[in-house]
Amino acid sequence: RSYNSYWKDTLLQLLIEGEKNGEQLNVNDLSKKTCMKVDDIQATLQKASVIGTTKRNTASIVIPESVKEAHRIRMAKITTHIDPDRLHWTPVTKYI
Predict the structure, then answer these.
(1) How far, in Å, CA of 11 to CA of 18, rounded?
(2) Percent of the chain at pLDDT above 70?
(3) What is residue 22's DSSP assignment?
(4) pTM surpassing 0.70?
């Protein structure tokens, strides 16, 4: 999977799970959960066709059923899953 595809799926997963739990996540919530910049989140959601503008010219996140279904099918095909609790990041302290 590509970088953009990974982040699109990550954001969609967070939004869909939030919706199931009765949460209405906004771009700032997603930024806090993913450490992505708000601009990058907006661009990713626009490419995924889940963000638009309302009559009052404000952003609105709406996930069409077709996007949810495509996401569900794509996630079912992924055979490698990463356990975030087992990831350990260490910053580079020396350059070769």
Answers:
(1) 10
(2) 96
(3) T
(4) yes
